[in-house]
Amino acid sequence: MAAKFTFQCSSDDGRRPLPHKILFGLGLNETARHIVLKFMAWVLFHRERLMVETSVQNDSIPFVPDLCQLGYDMRPALWVECGDCSVAKLHKLGAKCPEAEIWVVKASLAEVQSLMRSMAREELRTDRYDLLALDPETVGELIGLIRERNEFHLHRADPEDKRLQFEFNGLWFDTTYETLRF
Predict the structure, then answer these.
(1) How many Cβ atoms are within 10 Å of 58's Cβ, its own excluded?
(2) For the chain, which terminus, N or C, has the lower number of CB atoms within 10 Å?
(3) Among 14, 11, 13, which Cα is nearest to 151's?
(4) How far is CA 33 from CA 37, 56, 85, 132, in A?
């Protein structure tokens, strides 16, 4: 598998103007699935100053987020974890990043529900974490289509009806996602 993935991006969605190009490196023990989850999270959460796998420059936070937006005070304002994420890590993030929006992006609703059960069992603070479940069939198709060089065109990303319409490497996708709060 390639060591890096390039996405040429364009957007018709005025609320979500995407940069022309984004690059994702394949980290140690990462899979195409994780790259797909990170890329889709990047599309959904895109905003100014959104960074991919950047150090937050804080010794008390020993983690590197999949996606992060630092505030002007250089503290995390948005922290996004994609795929596998331990409950212990989420608990620490909730304590060490008190002002940050913390999101976990999973490939299916079943994965999100399983994580939420684990979070409840470990008694994590409630009303603190947001979880996003993508459509598992869409994720599976995207994994099969991903290449070193990819083309992505966003037609619509509507957070109110949780609908995504886009083209990925020449194929049309019309899919939904779900968000839950823990």
Answers:
(1) 14
(2) N
(3) 11
(4) 6, 24, 14, 15
Q: Pull the structure tokens for residue 48.
A: 């100014």
> Strand 163-168 relative to strand 149-158: parallel, antiparallel, unpaired?
antiparallel
Which has the closest alpha carbon to 114: 91, 90, 87?
A: 87
Summarised one tens digit per residue, pLDDT across range 162-171 is: 999 999 999 9
Residues 60-87: pLDDT tens digits?
A: 898 999 999 999 998 999 999 999 999 9
Instruction: Give the span between the Cα atoms of 115 and 161, in whole angstroms.
Output: 23
Quick check: 76 and 70 in contact, CB under 8 A? yes
Supply φ then ψ for residue 112, to 5 degrees. Answer: -65, -45
Q: How close are the terminal C-alpha atoms of the chain, in Å?
A: 35
| Placement of tokens 């002002």 in the chain | 99
Question: Largest Cα–Cα distance of the chain, in whole Å?
Answer: 45
Calculate the CA dihedral of residues 134, 136, 137, 140 and round it to 10 degrees.
Answer: 100
**Contacts of residue 85, Cβ cutoff 8 Å, sequence gap at least 6:** 104, 115
Residue of 32, 3, 169 lying closest to 107 (CA atoms): 32
Give the Cα separation of 142 and 40 in Å (integer). 10
